[in-house]
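Supplementary Note 3. Input sequence used for the single-chain structure prediction.
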Amino acid sequence: APAYKLGKDAVSLEAKVNSKVEATVVKTADSTLDTKATLVGGGVDGSGATKPTVTVQDGKVTVEAAANTTPGEYTATVKDAEGSFHVLRITVVGKFTVPTLTAANTPARSGQSVEVATVSNWATVKEEIKQATGKEATKDDVKVELEAGSATDIKDKVTDVVFDPVTGKVNAKIATGATASGKFKVKVTVKAVEGKRLETSSDATEVTAHA
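The predicted structure, written as discrete structure tokens, is reproduced below.
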């Protein structure tokens, strides 16, 4: 388990729904939290309908988020052996779909904007973004990166990469070149939303562009 220093700053623990996170509490110059530390008030503060469970025992803090725990921000207060108080900041995040990227069928290398790949499960991912942000997904919720192709790499000939948040398609301009077919890889990352959603990324998917 990772060691979290408890001291002047609040300690942050992140738990996924339906999982358990354990932290080893360590002594620091300004904290003497040890095996005698106790949870103050016996519970967790936060507005979620179903809160995570926090236990403190033998110098370890355990946060357990059941399958029905409400994602969001929570706090718990711990008292150390010397009577000092420490705040634990707990973030519970939901389960998140990883975007599945499918390469488009042989995009042309004409210098025109063409579809190079599509997030095939975009409808699901888009709905999760809406739940996390409270609004419809935009291109700013998604990051598209290019990686080198496995052979005849033409990554440097691909420009104007644009993600369409309505369809889940990735469009780009592929410069005309001498080789008959060139390759590059596309990766789509759905950005994190603080306190609501973790970042998820597709695999780097290879696209073959024909002249």
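The two ends are 52 Å apart (CA to CA). The first helix runs from residue 122 to 133.
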